């Protein structure tokens, strides 16, 4: 089992050049749980995750891991405790799956140290958990999108950190592979107690797979809590500008957001389609 780590954000201010993206944001990540960060495009979700992993330096405030500012921690010390899977990572050309997953062990190795049985065990376990053992000798660039994403997650798992940050881990995957990846992360959280923080675009998948939901709006915290507390029609309207209904997911029992859209005000779709076709025929 992993150790519960306290990951908190205190009055964080981050931007790119002259543009401020996050201004004075504070929040706490529940240890040992799955947290999903949601919000409209360009609201600061990925910027927040990159700041939490120290890829971006704050202009103000700080990110703390067990009370230590992550931006002041030695890189290898942080990498042994916190792992990051960035959005659309790029593998070196020709690298095999086993070699890529093995790179997750670099934070645990010292200068001139040899590969150990513990490293072998970590890589083998990561390949097994992600169902990528049979892919070990294949070049990463020959894999399908779903296979490649599982391999990147395997590399992050081989790092064996207590906290795992994932920036849109389901992007570019079809729905079956999205569910597959999120099921895998849930299994990891259940088996090892890994604290998982992930940015997701799909509100319903975020509600189904997370214990804790964080909704951002224009770089500020709009709401945080359980999916049932956060995912409401009022929040969807405020954060996404979308009218919706929120019902109970018949499969998971979690909140399910159903968008109304501009053309669904009680009239059935079939007559509208027929009207549109007849208008086209008259032209």
UniProtKB/TrEMBL annotation:
One MF term in the entry's GO annotations: ATP hydrolysis activity
Topological category with respect to the lipid bilayer: Peripheral membrane protein
Keywords, sorted A to Z: ATP-binding, Cell membrane, Ion transport, Iron, Iron transport, Membrane, Nucleotide-binding, Transport
Subcellular location: Cell membrane
Biased segments, Basic and acidic residues type: 272-283
Biological process, per Gene Ontology: iron ion transport
Positions of region (Disordered): 257-283
A Pfam family reported for this protein in Swiss-Prot or TrEMBL: ABC_tran
TM region(s), chain numbering: none
Residue ranges occupied by any ABC transporter domain in the UniProt entry: 7-243
This protein's GO CC annotations: plasma membrane
UniProt protein name: ABC transporter ATP-binding protein
């Amino acid at each position: 089992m992993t150790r519960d780590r306290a990951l908190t954000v205190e009055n964080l201010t981050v931007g790119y050049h002259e543009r401020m993206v996050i201004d004075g944001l504070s929040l706490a990540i529940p240890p040992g749980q799955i947290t999903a960060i949601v919000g409209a495009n360009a609201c600061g979700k990925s910027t927040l995750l990159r700041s939490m992993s120290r890829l971006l330096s704050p202009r103000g405030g700080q990110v703390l891991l067990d009370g230590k500012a992550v931006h002041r921690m030695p890189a290898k010390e942080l990498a042994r405790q916190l792992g990051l899977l960035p959005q659309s990572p790029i593998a070196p050309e020709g690298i095999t799956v086993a070699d890529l997953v093995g790179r997750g062990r670099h934070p645990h190795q010292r200068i001139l140290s040899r590969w150990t049985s513990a490293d072998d065990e970590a890589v083998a376990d990561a390949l097994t958990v992600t169902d990528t053992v049979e892919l070990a000798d294949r070049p990463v660039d020959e894999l399908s999108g779903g296979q490649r994403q599982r391999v990147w997650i395997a590399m992050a798992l081989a790092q064996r950190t207590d906290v795992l940050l994932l920036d849109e881990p389901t992007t570019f995957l079809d729905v079956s592979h999205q569910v597959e990846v999120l099921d895998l992360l849930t299994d990891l959280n259940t088996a090892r107690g890994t604290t998982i923080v992930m940015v997701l675009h799909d509100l319903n998948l975020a509600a189904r797979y997370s214990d804790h939901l964080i909704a951002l709006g224009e770089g500020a915290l709009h709401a945080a809590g359980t999916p049932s507390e956060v995912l409401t029609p009022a929040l969807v309207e405020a954060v996404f500008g979308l009218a919706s209904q929120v019902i109970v997911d018949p499969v998971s029992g979690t909140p399910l957001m159903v968008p109304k859209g501009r053309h669904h005000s009680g009239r059935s779709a079939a007559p509208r389609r027929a009207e549109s076709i007849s208008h086209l025929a008259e032209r």
